[in-house]
Amino acid sequence: AQRVTQPEKLLSVFKGAPVELKCNYSYSGSPELFWYVQYSRQRLQLLLRHISRESIKGFTADLNKGETSFHLKKPFAQEEDSAMYYCALRGSNYKLTFGKGTLLTVNP
Amino acid sequence: NAGVMQNPRHLVRRRGQEARLRCSPMKGHSHVYWYRQLPEEGLKFMVYLQKENIIDESGMPKERFSAEFPKEGPSILRIQQVVRGDSAAYFCASSRRDSGYEQYFGPGTRLTVT
User: Which helix (H) or strand (E) holds A43?
Assistant: First the structure.
């Protein structure tokens, strides 16, 4: 079975501080991991995927198969990063399994 | 490209009524997925459709729920005889192909059952 756990429902940091949103997964095979973001009153959009290994808006995420984690990190948070963040997993098929999400608030 | 369109954005139904949710995929996309998000939960897969075919409906409740994606027109998620527990946000996503291709999400339809 596929499972994604985001242990933090809420995360609050100050502008300029580092931020890490945690994501752990459970899957028996080789998963594909994603981070989606939903800004206020906007639709869900893909932030990054582990396969591309790129940095988007200063965010990075590394797949750690040993710890079954895919934590999202940014060294210096900005106010415009305030949003809902969802970690998602795709296994051998097309289905995306989402975590419950973490609401990030970046305070000025 | 206007992106994935969903309508209505908000839908209020009384218990026992029918709810019809529409999803128009992005231009060039022939694969549609429906997800449901209950309060305080993540999005959960419901059904995957291609034009005129249901590929996987393993996430659909066994009764009252149905989905279609006709040759012409939007995909429809239909909920008959709604109950309070159906109140949720329903998201549609589309992709050009199945695995390996990004799913683009619509803005969602928020269904409230009174």
Answer: none
